[in-house]
Amino acid sequence: MVYSYGFRSLDRRVLYLGLSRFIRALGRVSAFIFLPLIFISIYHISFLLTGLILGSSAVIMAIVQYYAGKWTDRIGRRSFLIIIPIPASIFYFLMFIAVFYHLQFIYLILPWYGTIILNSLQYPAIEAAVADITSVSERLSGYTLIRILANLGAAIGPLIGGILSSINFSYIFILASVLTIAELFMLYFNVKETYTIRNINKEEIKFKIFKSDRFFFLFTIVGVVLGFTLRQNGPTLTVYAFDLKALPLIDIGLIYSVNGLAVIALQMPILRLMSSRMNAVFWRGIGTVYYAAGFMVLAFNSAFAYFLIAMLIFTIGEDFMAPTTQTIITTLAPADKKGTYIGSYNLLTSFGRFFGTIFGLYFLYLLRGSTITFWTVIAVATLATAMAYVFMGNSFVRRVSRSSGVLNKA
User: Between the CA of residue 181 and those of 23, 24, 61, 347, 385, what are the distances in Å?
Assistant: First the structure.
């Protein structure tokens, strides 16, 4: 399966969708990175309760995305793109107030859940909009452009967040609030509606898409396991670095900035490789192998330099894997069910992220005296998932060939 390489042929709206992701990441990534530290360090919430709160957010996010995906297939994408940022900005401002004045924990949690719901409402619209305005052969490049711009924001954001957090944790939320308004203006003036509304069968509410599309079901089940293991690259890694290894906040910001910078440097060569041979599911497996290697680096050394090395390895894996997620899903999906497929996948895989957050932080705490065991188990499970993807590659090609024959406009 051959994908086109490069961005010149892409609809200009893909660029603006990517720029909106850049603005979003610039403001919001720090909030996600440093929030578990706020829970544990300022509000003295336990590791287990922190895992439960963050894990539950993954399930809430996916449930909302599931229905949002179906709604975007019924009413279009633009409404979600330009309405959601307004209340999201307000919620981030309320989080700033809660942390700055050290209000009770509930005043931080409630607006945070509000941002989770709102972000989840908007996400399927952005991803489906990219699929609307790209052909199947262009799609890998389209999602890659979105990812590069998002990670440019994710490279700068944690650096700013590390500096702001060293002054006061609350300042990261005021930054998110202001930049969310900037995102609104970007989308309002530059992204017109991408979707032509069609009559839609409501059968997907009962997950009949999984019965009729066996490959999509298998791909989703493997994604559940992947969600569990890769969740350790998020809150678990942050808590491990700060609470167990006592890295300063600015160093944590630098670790996550390496991720964003490496994406920018490596994504295009990796895209060229993926565009020239094999298929998206195979390359997803290769990317997952790199994640397993990164976890093994954490297992055997916890010095700051090794955190950077592990993050670089994670990023190579992410460069292979991240653009393939929506490419695979929207290639499998019929034209009038792209949002539904995205939402359904995110809903089921959220359970992997949910249990990954809870058990990750819980077992990290239990094994805090022997973290080599923790990271080795995660690495082995990740490697097993990678092998599943590699073996599924040919099945993906056959599935796409049966449904479309050739790569046509979707």
Answer: 10, 10, 21, 28, 39
CATH number at 350 reads 1.20.1250.20
Q: How far apart are alpha carbons 56 and 351 in whole angstroms?
A: 9
In a domain, 1, yes or no: no
Q: What is the CA radius of gyration of the chain?
A: 20
Q: Which pLDDT value is given to residue 92?
A: 98
CB atoms closer than 10 angstroms to residue 62: 23
Whether pTM > 0.70 for this model: the answer is yes
For 80-95, how does the pLDDT look when each residue is reduced to its tens digit (9 = 90+)? 999 999 999 999 999 9
Residue spans of alpha helices (H) in 133-170: 136-167
Residue 7 lies in a domain: no
- Provide the domain limits for residue 186: 12-192+207-404
In this model, does residue 4 exceed pLDDT 50?
A: yes
Q: How many domains does the chain have?
A: 1
- Letter for the amino acid at 357? T
Count the neighbouring beta carbons within 10 Å of the beta carbon of residue 234.
18
Distance CA 156, CA 341 (A): 32
Place of tokens 């009729």: 212
CA angle 1–315–7, rounded 5-degree value: 50
The count of C-alpha atoms lying within 13 angstroms of the C-alpha of 281, restricted to the half-sphere facing its C-beta, is 28
In the predicted model, is pLDDT for residue 199 greater than 70?
no
